[in-house]
Write a structure and sequence with these properties.
- It is a single chain.
- This protein has 282 residues and is of the alpha/beta class.
- It has a single domain, classed as Rossmann fold (3-Layer(aba) Sandwich), CATH 3.40.50.
- The chain has nine helices and nine strands.
- The strands form two sheets. A seven-stranded parallel sheet has the order 3-2-1-4-6-7-9, sandwiched between helices. Strands 5-8 form a two-stranded parallel ribbon.
- The chain is globular and about 60 Å long.
Length: 282
């Protein structure tokens, strides 16, 4: 029997490519998409007929109760759910002092509470069938802090802790939970997906020079092909068991995490600040 895979945030980036690759592996894919203008994204992709037939598109805004309620009803009508890929997310940029609390709340509504509610909708089905895999898309930002991204970083740190606890809770029911932790990849989360409060652009802001250095540093990053992350998630979806909790991926990710654990904080701090602004003081 073909496995059923649910992928949230499937209109672009990791979610889009994961949905296609899973469909190509002859899995039944439910591609959950928030934007109503992108419901035809797979029909417009020129996919082979067999691949296209394996993809069903559902509307889902993980921050709206009405949408989540519809999603729960649809999940309850499924015979089974084998894999859930919690990919829906976005990034708020800006320095802590300048980011309004409402933007922090919106960040957590999607990246944390959205994951919670979607997962709670799927867990009863997986528990009853005594089998399932939940793949939460985190980030290297869930392991390492970075200036100018405190809202995004804190939401991904929260997702990391949530996933650790959830894995302990559901493992006895035959359900595996894992984190995929990408580094810098070419997705719209760092272009149209990166939201910046208006205060970030204020030339009179005490963070103005810092901001310019930060964006230069981000633009110097080498953005890899998101298809590589999708390939990893498709491979994990097809495995009988996810033996590891964390799957970091991307150039330098493992090294950077290792350095954070190994180096004194003072050295790490000087290195990051020098890379961005060339000095400790503004």
């Amino acid at each position: 029997m073909k496995p059923t895979v649910i992928v949230t945030g499937a209109s672009s980036g990791f979610g889009y490519y994961t949905a296609i690759k899973c469909a190509q592996k002859n899995m039944n894919v439910i591609a959950a998409i928030r934007n109503p203008n992108k419901m035809n994204v797979f029909k417009q992709a020129g996919l082979k007929e067999q691949t296209a037939e394996n993809i069903a598109v559902w509307p889902l805004d993980v921050t709206k109760e009405e949408s989540l309620s519809f999603f729960r009803e649809q999940v309850n009508q499924l015979n089974r759910v084998d894999v859930l890929v919690n990919n829906a997310g976005y990034a708020v940029g800006g320095f802590f002092e300048q980011v309004p609390i409402k933007d922090y709340r919106r960040q957590f509504e999607t990246n944390v509470f959205g994951v919670i509610q979607v997962t709670q909708a799927v867990l009863p089905k997986m528990r009853e069938q005594r089998q399932g895999k939940i793949i939460n898309v985190s980030s290297v930002s869930g392991l390492i802090g970075f200036p100018g991204l405190s809202a995004y970083v804190s939401s991904k740190h929260a997702l990391e802790g949530l996933t650790e606890s959830l894995r302990f809770e559901v493992k006895p029911f035959g359900i595996d939970v894992a984190l995929v932790e990408p580094g810098s990849y070419e997705t719209n989360i760092w272009s149209s997906g990166l939201e910046l409060p208006q205060a970030v652009y204020d030339p009179h802001s005490p963070y103005h020079e810092y901001t310019k250095g930060l964006w230069k540093a981000l633009n110097r990053e080498v953005h890899e092909d998101p298809g590589k992350v999708a390939e990893l998630m498709t491979t994990l979806a097809g495995r009988d068991e996810l033996k590891r909790l964390r799957y970091p991926i991307g150039p330098g990710v493992r090294v950077n995490v290792w350095l954070k654990r190994l180096l004194p904080w003072s050295i790490l701090e000087r290195t990051v600040l020098k890379k961005i602004i060339g000095t400790k003081e503004l």
